[in-house]
Amino acid sequence: MTRQQLLDLYFMDARSKLIDIAAFLDRMDRGEGEPDFRLDAFRKALAELHRGEPERAKSVLMSLSDLTVEPIAKAPGKGAVGAWKMTNEK
Amino acid sequence: MRYIEPHGHMVSRVTDDYEAMVLAGCRAVCEPAFWAGYDRSGPEGFYDYFCQLTDYEPKRAAKFGLPHFTWLCINPKESEDTKLAEEVIALIPQFLDRPSVLGIGEIGLNKNTRNELKILEQHIDLAARHDQLILVHTPHLEDKHKGTRLILDALKADARIQPGRVIIDHVEEHTIQMVLDAGFWAGITLYPESKTTPARAIDMYEVYGGQRVWLNSACDWGRSDPLAVPKTAIEMRRRGHADETIDQLVFQNPIRFLGQNPRFTVR
Asked: Residues near B66 by Cβ (< 8 Å), separated by ≥ 6?
């Protein structure tokens, strides 16, 4: 598809999601107390959008991922939270 | 439109979903064993679940003329308890001859622990000994990239495993390339939040190719949409893909992989 066709198809959807992210960050600013590691991880991932290559989705996902290589000793729980927090567990 | 739903947890869906899927063009649904949302108290719970998957659920689908197939395993969310997992794995062979069983799945990792990896290796061994197809679940969110690498290593370490008989499900932009490069099939899961949207799924199809790719809804008891595959087919039309291209991705590709088990037949 041409860039113009892609704009016609996806601009409103992307615009809506962009404003949702802006509103989320505003909401966080208005909130009280200290946030956990996820907000820093989110801001770091946002910086990946400025990359010039068409691999931004991959870069954002990698930015939020556990990049260690060894299996861990014990599951901390069953769920995932969407961003990785470095721990000292071996 | 015609399509296959190759990954749907129908035991947690209402009967109306079967009707909606058939109306949308679904020709077969395949149901991997998974986590119930709570830990089962013992292997007997899994025995009952495997009976449900191989007996009751095909009958429920048949009321709408929809063939129902299944995969068996203990899901990685419960494999941290290795004693329980080994007891469940020992139950599986007695179900493998049932007419709707396609293979071992969805096995894999959840939090990428040593115990999960040990049970994954036992599932791989079970599949190899019984010449079964394999359906692999890759971990969620921040654990996906690491887990996918560990899973690929475990599969490649077993010389009996043929990559063309294994599908690695829930790939995203940061994992699809390594899966396809290793010769495995890749499944793209369509979820409202935690996996892939229709637009991103089509992006991956366009960038990485669709020769060894299928789409699935993985609908279950969480936020998910049993009609996600046909909705993505509509999105492909909006992008200008030909009907034959769409049919290949949502109908012919699943048949090519699943048809490696002669039990999988679709009208």
From this structure: B18, B21, B22, B26, B27, B28, B29
Global ipTM: 0.95
Report yes or no on A25 lying in a domain. Answer: yes
Strand partners, B213: B186
Q: Which residue out of B173, B179, B197, B206 would a mutagenesis test of the A interface target, given it has the greatest number of A Cβ atoms within 10 Å?
A: B173
Grouping H, G, I as helix, E, B as strand and the rest as coil, residue A78 is coil
**Helix segments in chain B, DSSP class H:** 15-24, 43-51, 57-62, 82-91, 114-129, 144-156, 176-181, 198-208, 228-238, 243-247, 253-258
One domain, residues A25 and A40: no
For the segment A65-79, what is each residue's pLDDT rounded down to a tens digit? 999 999 999 999 999
A3 and A25 inside one domain: yes
Class of the CATH-defined domain B3-258: alpha beta
Chain A interface includes B140 (CB < 8 A): yes
Inside any domain, residue A87? no
Q: Per-residue pLDDT tens for B30-56? A: 999 999 999 999 999 999 999 999 999
How many independent structural domains does chain A possess?
Answer: 2
A62/B145 Cβ within 8 A: yes
Q: Is the pLDDT of residue B162 over 50?
A: yes
For B168, list phi and psi in degrees, rounded to 5. Answer: -100, 115
Alpha carbon separation from B70 to B103, B104, B219 (Å, rounded): 8, 9, 14
Instruction: Measure in Å the smallest separation between the Cα of A29 and chain B Cα atoms.
Output: 23
Q: Are residues A38 and A24 in the same domain?
A: no
Pair A28, A55 in one domain:
no
Domain of A51 in residue numbering reads as 34-69
Strand partners, B136: B107, B168
